[in-house]
Amino acid sequence: MTTSATTPLSDADFDTPIEHRYFEDYVPGSVYVYGSITVSEEDVLRFAGDFDPQSIHTDPETAENGPFKGLIASGWHTTALMMRMYADHYVSKVASLGSPGVDELRWVRPVRPGDSLSIRTTVRQARVSRSKPDRGLVHTGIEVLNQRGEPVLTMTAMNFLLRRPQR
């Protein structure tokens, strides 16, 4: 699987580098775009062989006659590629406390070998925890986009993040 470094794809980026980013840096309404990762046929076949061995992901000849008229990446593969870009650029390296889950994960278009993917993140909500005031919960809308700017995956991520320490 491709794991090369990805980059910001827009002029908008956090003012604070990911190594110093805390809950307060996730401002509702902020939008950031990162990427890209190109998906190869080898990546599709390897991931599917290991984790999602359905013929639409593992057998190019059978997939050609299937519902998508060709080989497509597993939705879980697409989700893993999203996570790579999300972790590389969006989630704090110093304040992340994990996630209680995601909402409304949807695979809206197939990803095919040769597609180049990026992510668009939108901070939807950020609130301080009532029970643990040293942290907050951030809801982020995520769209994975193909090279044509078409969404292939949408979801809402939730992340617990430490608040910036007081000096």
TrEMBL record:
Coiled-coil blocks: none
Residue ranges of domain MaoC-like in the record: 35-130
Entries under Gene3D superfamilies matching the protein: Hotdog Thioesterase
InterPro entries: HotDog_dom_sf, MaoC-like_dom, MCH/BMMD
Pfam families named among the record's database cross-references: MaoC_dehydratas (PF01575)
Recorded family membership: Belongs to the enoyl-CoA hydratase/isomerase family.
Full protein name: MaoC family dehydratase
